[in-house]
Amino acid sequence: MQSQPQLRDMTPTEIHNALLRHEIVLIDVREPAEYMAERIHGALLSPLSTFDPAVLPVGGRPVVLHCGSGKRSAMAVEKCIAAGVPVTAHMAGGIMAWKHARLPTVTIDAGTGSVVDRR
To answer: Global pTM?
Structure first.
């Protein structure tokens, strides 16, 4: 009997290094306003409110999910597992843990509309 895939936690540092090496695709499952306010460079958006595992870019690099704290990304991984989509990893602690680790984010300056890299 084959075992059910399990949720796999990844650290912000593991994800940062994997992104730098182009080894993963990072999907942000927060809502569009959260993504626009601050995001991880290179992360794609697929909000949990409309999340469909079937549209994730699986097949090339492994897909890793993230959100604000890790709760919504864990829920999205469970949806993937239930749908038979090969996505089992997420970032433990979400973007809050990413920022706590002092990793870079991208935001939009509300006054000018300019993209701002925060390091």
So the answer is: 0.90
